[in-house]
Design a protein that fits this description.
seven-stranded parallel sheet, binds thiamine diphosphate, 33 helices, single chain, binds magnesium ion, 1014 residues
Length: 1014
Amino acid sequence: MERPSGPKLKTKRSATRRAAIRRAARKGPAAGTATKRSARKGPAAGTATKRSARKGPAAATATKRAARKGAGAGNADASKGLARKAAGPGNAEAPKGPARKGTAAGGMTRSTARKGVEPERLPTQGAAPEGTARRRVARKGSTTKRPATERAGAKTLGSDKSEAKRSGAETLGSDKSATKRPAAMAKAPAARKPASRRSDAKMSKAKKSGRRRAAAPLDTPTLLSLYEKMVLLRRFESAAQMACRKGETPGFLHLYIGEEATAVGVCAHLRPSDWITSTHRGHGHALAKGMSPRILMAELFGKRDGCCGGRGGTMHLYDRAVGLFGTNGIVAAGIGHAAGAGISARIRNTDDIAVAFFGDGAVNHGGFHESINFAAIQQAATVFVCENNLYATATPLKEATLNTEIATRAAAYGIPGVAVDGNDVLAVHAAMRDAADRARRGDGPTLIEAKTYRTVGHHEGDPVVGSYRTQEEIDAWLQRDPIVLLRRRLIDDYGIATAADLDAIDARVEKAVEDALAFARQSPEPDTATLHAHVFAEPLNPPAALAPADPAAPTQTTGWLDAVRDGIAEEMRRDPHIMYFGEGTGERGGTFAHTKGLWQEFGPKRMVDTPISEQGFTAAALGASATGARTIADLMFADFLFEAAGQIVLQASKLRYMSNGQMNAPVVVRVGAGALRSAGPHHSGTYHPMWAHVPGLIVALPSTPADAKGLMKTALRAADPVIILETKALFASKGEVPEGNHLVPFGVARIVRSGSDLTIATAGQLVDRAFEAADRLAAEGIDCEIVDLRTIMPLDVDTVATSVRKTHRLLIVDEGYAMCGVGAELGQAMQELVFDELDAPVGRVHTEPVIHPLAPALERAMLVDAEKIVAAAKGIVSGAVPVPVHWRHATGMAPALPAAPPVARTAPRKESPQAETPASVNAEPVNGEPITMPFGDLTISEGKIVRWAKAVGDTVAAGELVAEIETDKAVVEIEAPVAGVIAGIEQPVGAIVPMGGRIGVVRPADADATGRSG
Ligand SMILES: Cc1ncc(C[n+]2csc(CCOP(=O)(O)OP(=O)(O)O)c2C)c(N)n1
Ligand SMILES: [Mg+2]
C-alpha cells in the first residue's frame, strides 16, 4: 500500500544536500557518501477415472458409475473441511539557516528528529538563533505570490478575518498571522517572540522574582493532564519505533510524532461513549481516547493480548470500550463512519458525538466531500478534524490542491470551519470545545483544520527528510514541538508547575510505556486455531430466522415490491433504530416505487433522502450500523455498488474480523439487479460472484416475493453486512407470501422442483427460466430437479450435493459470468463433495461474457433463456457437456504463436525477513549492544555497507551515526544503539547485510563486565 521508499533517512537523489546538512549539523566533514552501487538486488486414484470421463461422454458415465460402485466412500468426509486566530506563533515563516545553527547548538541531530524529539532534549526557545527575525522580515518582503485561493478566483477565506466570518471559516490560536500563509504552507511556524524565550532554568529565576504571569486558560489538573497525555503519546511511539527497528512489530508503522497536540486537545472533550475514527497514523488518537498502552503495544506486536488479538495491527485498531471505532488503512474511509456514528447518536437520542480524524491527503478524496456534505445536511453530531501536516506521503498539499486553506472548505458544505495551530494543544482544546458543544447541542458538524507537522518519516523506514522536504523545515518545526511549547507555558507563562513536577510526570509515563513493552513482549502469539473466527457472527443467522416456518400459516398473494416494503415496515416498527438511506427513497417513494409509504409512516429522520453520494452514504450507513442504528443503504442499481465498493469490501466486510469480534457492521445494502429489457451496459448487472468472493459479506439473490421479504427481514436482524440483490425483472411478479413474521435463513437452499435425472442449481430470475426448461425437458423424458440457491454467500452446497446424490448430474444456471463464477465454485464443490456420485461432468450456463448491449437482439443472445438451459441439460444427459464461451476459447485475440520455450527458473526472490536473526549473520551473543541493520520498509530485505563513520575504539553518543547502508531505495543511516565505545566492526564496507543483521557492537558507557548496560 505504501509508497515504495527507503528504509529510513535519506534518498539517493539528495545525497549532496544531505551531505551539506550533515556537515552543518555535525560540524564535521561529510564523508564520501553514497554512490549508487545497487546491491539489488490428493487422491490420485480419482485421476484415472476422471481421465476416462473426459475421453467420451458415454464412457464417462459408465466409468464413473463403476468407480462409484467401487471406491465410493472415499470422499464422504471431504465436506467437513470447511478561525478565531490561529494558534501560535505557529504558522508564519520559519527561520532558515540560523535555525539550524540553533538546533545544532541545542544538541539536535537528524537522528533526534527521526526518533521524535524527546521533550527534555529539545532546543529551547532561548536557543533560537539571532537573525531569526531578520530572516523572517526578508522572507515577508519577498513574498509577493498571491494566495492560492485568490489565484483560483475564490475568496481567500482564512486569510481575511471579515471574509472568514462571512464564510463561516475562522482561525483559532494565539497568533493572528498563523493562517496567513498560503504561499508558505510548506514552511514551519516561526519561533516565538524573543521576550518569551526562556529556558526552564531562566524561568524558575523569573518565578522567584515574582514576575506577573499569564492567566492559565484551564484549571491546573486539566493542563497537567494534557501534558501527560502528550508525553504518553510521544514516549509510547518512541518505544514502538525502536521495537519496529528491531523487527518486533510486524508490518508498517506510521508514527504521529510531532502531532500530539491535535489528538490530545480534541479527545480531551470526549467521553467513552463518543466515537472517533482515525487514520493510518492513529496510535495517538487511540491513546488520547483512552486505550490502554498495554493492549495497544501488544497489538502492534501482533500478539494475542492486543486490542484486536493481533488481527488488526497499527492501521486497524479498535476498542469499543473507549469509543475507538477504528484506525484505518484507507485514506478518507473513516470520515463517513464518523458521519454515520454522529447520525446514529441522534437516532438513539443521546448527546454523544463522533469525531473523524484525517490528514490533508484525505481532503481531495471523494470520501471527504461526500461524507461531510451528507453529515452537514443531516446535522450529524460529528466533528471533522483535519490534521494538515502539509504532506500526503511525499506529496505537498500545495501540489494537490489550489485551495490549501482546508478550513475554508467548510463553507462549501454550509458548516463552520476553524483553522487552528495544531501544535498548540490549548488552541486545539479551545476550538474543539466549541465544535463539540455545537455537535452535542444538535447543531451539526464543524470542520477543524489543525495545522501541524510530523517530524518523522511517513512510515518507519521512510526517510525523515526524504526527497520532498528539507532538514531546515523539519528543524524549524521541531522548535515548535507541541510538548515543549506546553511545558514552557506551564512553567514559565502560567507558573503552575516546575520542571521537576513535569519531569516526574515524564518518569511516570516512561514507566507505563516500559510496562506496555514488557506486556507486549510476554503476550503469546494468537492461537492459529482461531484463524477462522470472527469472519461472520456465530451463528450467522439470527435466531428468529432459524425458527421452523409454520407450513399452515396463511398466505397472501403479494407483489414483490410490496412484499419487501411490508417486511421493512414491520422491522422498522419493531426496531426504532432502523434507518433507510437512499436516493429519492423518501417522500417520493423510490425510483421503483419500492419505498412507497415508508416516509409517511416513519418520517424524514428515519427515511433519509440522500444526495447522490453512494460512497458517502454507504460509509455513513456502515458507521451508523456499527454504533447501534441499523441502516439500509439503497443504491438503486447493482451497478452502482462499485461506487461504494471500498466501503463494502474494505470496511464493512472486514470490520468484525479486524476488530477481533468487537465491532460489526450489520448494514443492509439493497439494490435492483440483473438484465431487464435493454437497460444497457450500466444498469443490467448482478455481479453477485464478486461480492460473494469477499469473506464477511452475505449475498442474497431471492427468486420470489416471499423469499425477498423473508431475506430482507432476516438481514435486518442479522449481525453482518448483507447485500440483497433484487432482480428488477421480478419486481412486477406476484407470489404467495406467508402472513406473520416470515424470515428466511441465509445459506439454506430449497428444492423447488423434484426430479430424478438432472439437478439444475440456480437463483434469482433464472429460477423461472429453469422451470420453463424443466417443463420442456419433461416432455422429452428428462426429469429435472431444481434447487433455488437463494443466497450466493453462504452457498448451500450441501443441498445441491444431496440432490446430485439422487440425480447424478448437475447443471448450474447463473445470471453472472462464468469466469470465477457460481458455476465454477459450485462445480468444484461437487467435485469435492460428490465426485463419485457424478455420472457426467458438471455443466454450467452463464450470461455470455460481454457487456450488456442495448439492442434487444444482442441482449437476448447474451442472456440465459429456457432454450439455452434445455440444450445444456440435454448435452449433459447425452454426454456432450456444455462449455461456456470463455476467453480462453476466444479466437482472434492474439496471433497463433509457436509454443514458447520453457524459461529457466531464476533463484526464488528473497522475502523480507521477519524478526528472526538472518542465517547469514553472526548470531553469537555479543559483549555489548549490537549495531544492526534496522527493520522498517517491508519491501527491502538487505543492503550493502557503503561507509563506516566510526572505527573500533571510537566513542559514540546514543543515536549517533556509525555507518551507512545502501539499499535498493535509499541510503540508510545506522545509529549507535547506546552511548559507549565501538567494540567491534563485524561487517566491512562492501558487505551485504540482511535486515536485522548485526554489523558491529557498542560497549555501553555504563556497561558492566559483560558489556551489558545497567
Ligand atoms: C485510498 C488510499 N489511497 C492511497 C493510500 C496510500 N497512502 C497511505 S497514507 C497516504 C498519505 C496520506 O496523507 P495524509 O492524509 O495527509 O495523512 P498523513 O500521512 O500526512 O498523516 C497514502 C497516499 C491509502 N492508504 N489509501
Ligand atoms: Mg498529511
